[in-house]
């Protein structure tokens, strides 16, 4: 049997040494960026969103993934944007400087929108929890949603309140954030189209806690319903002050009110409040139920954002696998063509703007300290 030539032996030895050094070095680290409010009154939203991402990355890393011919390990770079637009742009630049491969976040529309320009300029894909229509209307190729837009949610709720609940005189309050105002605007359009009359429109901020002046003005108009666009840090004290002022109007709000935190803050006063949420009820989606149970067991509390952030992380990973690359420029086209059966939805896909093609809206009512389902409107 002929022996290899000395030159061949040297090549074989060099290849073996290279393979050995690669194995010794371990997998290549792939960084993803995550930003949300992690301190302050909205910290519970960020914690829930982060929990879904952490579990997704753990599930991915357990697979010992290989991309581009090399083993990779995903790591999360976490930043607190404090729900502040100015902080968000600073955070976004830090992610760009750190050369992250993708962004899961931000949470708020008001932070996602300014940050999206930074990511678009750098060519880094972003899947945000933002629901304001403006987020994807900017036309950036790098922006994608994890949840249904306010255009659909506000439209569903406006029609539901007037047609299904028969409440035709409505007052509207929003917190002037991109999310709160956007949701309220869409609600107002739909309510008027359904035959409702807006008797008063008021504004507050996402830092306010005293609504006595606004509510006194509204009380004089005697609306059948009050719609609030904003977070539970405001909708909870708003509810308590409504009760103290003897306002009997039905309070309606969006998903940032449909939280366990809202129920804790309001107690019995929260009973009867109605709020909408993108997606099917958790109990109707086995994957979401299982994930929420994992979040509770691991982190002690769960709302409903974790299934969406889990899916967003998995969708980004799937696009990288399909492209066989973690380079944003190479996997971005595959992200845009996503078709994924996730835990939050069996049919995740994007349109040309990065909006979800399919989506359901569920309407809930607070009853005896729990959110119960009133109706689900299918968007698929």
Automatic annotation (TrEMBL):
Signal sequence interval, chain numbering: 1-25
Residue ranges occupied by any Leucine-binding protein domain in the UniProt entry = 29-350
A single Pfam family it belongs to is: Peripla_BP_6
Q: Which UniProt keywords apply?
A: Amino-acid transport, Signal, Transport
Which InterPro entries does the record associate with it?
Leu-bd (IPR028081), Leu_Ile_Val-bd (IPR000709), Peripla_BP_I (IPR028082)
Keyword Ion transport attached: no
Q: Which CDD domains match?
A: PBP1_ABC_LIVBP-like (cd06342)
The question of whether Plastid is a record keyword is answered with no
The record's family statement is: Belongs to the leucine-binding protein family.
User: What PANTHER family does this protein map onto?
Assistant: AMINO ACID BINDING PROTEIN (PTHR47151:SF2), LEU/ILE/VAL-BINDING ABC TRANSPORTER SUBUNIT (PTHR47151)
* Name the UniProt record assigns to this protein: Branched-chain amino acid ABC transporter substrate-binding protein
């Amino acid at each position: 049997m002929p022996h290899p030539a000395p030159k061949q032996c040297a090549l074989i030895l060099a290849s073996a040494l290279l393979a050995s050094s690669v194995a010794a070095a371990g997998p290549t680290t792939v960084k993803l960026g995550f930003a949300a409010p992690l301190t302050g009154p909205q910290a519970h939203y960020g914690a829930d969103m982060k929990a879904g991402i952490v579990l997704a990355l753990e599930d991915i890393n357990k697979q010992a993934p290989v991309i581009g011919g090399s083993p990779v390990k995903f790591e999360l770079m976490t930043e607190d944007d404090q729900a502040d637009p100015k902080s968000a742009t600073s955070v976004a630049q830090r992610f760009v400087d750190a050369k992250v491969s993708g962004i899961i976040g931000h949470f708020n529309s008001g932070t996602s929108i300014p940050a999206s320009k930074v990511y678009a300029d750098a060519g880094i894909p972003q899947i945000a929890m933002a629901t304001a229509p403006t987020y994807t209307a900017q036309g950036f190729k790098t922006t994608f949603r994890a949840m249904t837009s306010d255009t659909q949610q506000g439209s569903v709720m406006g029609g539901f309140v007037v047609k299904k609940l028969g409440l035709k005189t409505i007052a509207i309050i929003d917190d002037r954030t991109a999310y709160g105002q956007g949701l309220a605007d869409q609600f107002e359009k739909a309510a008027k189209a359904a035959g409702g009359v807006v008797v008063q429109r008021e504004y507050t901020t996402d830092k306010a806690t005293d609504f006595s002046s606004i509510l006194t003005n509204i009380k004089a108009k005697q609306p059948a319903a009050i719609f609030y666009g904003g977070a539970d840090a405001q909708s909870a004290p708003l509810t308590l002050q409504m009760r103290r002022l003897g306002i009997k109007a039905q309070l309606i709000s969006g998903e940032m009110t449909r939280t366990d935190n809202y129920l804790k803050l309001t107690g019995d006063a929260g009973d009867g409040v109605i709020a909408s949420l993108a997606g099917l009820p958790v109990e109707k989606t086995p994957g979401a139920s299982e994930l929420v149970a994992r979040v509770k067991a691991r982190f002690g509390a769960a709302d409903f954002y974790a299934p969406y952030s889990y899916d967003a992380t998995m969708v980004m990973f799937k696009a990288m696998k399909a492209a066989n690359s973690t380079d944003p420029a190479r996997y971005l086209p595959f992200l845009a063509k996503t078709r994924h059966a996730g835990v939050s939805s069996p049919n995740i896909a994007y349109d040309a703007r990065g909006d979800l093609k399919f989506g359901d809206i569920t309407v809930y009512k607070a009853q005896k300290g729990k959110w119960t389902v009133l109706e689900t409107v299918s968007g698929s």
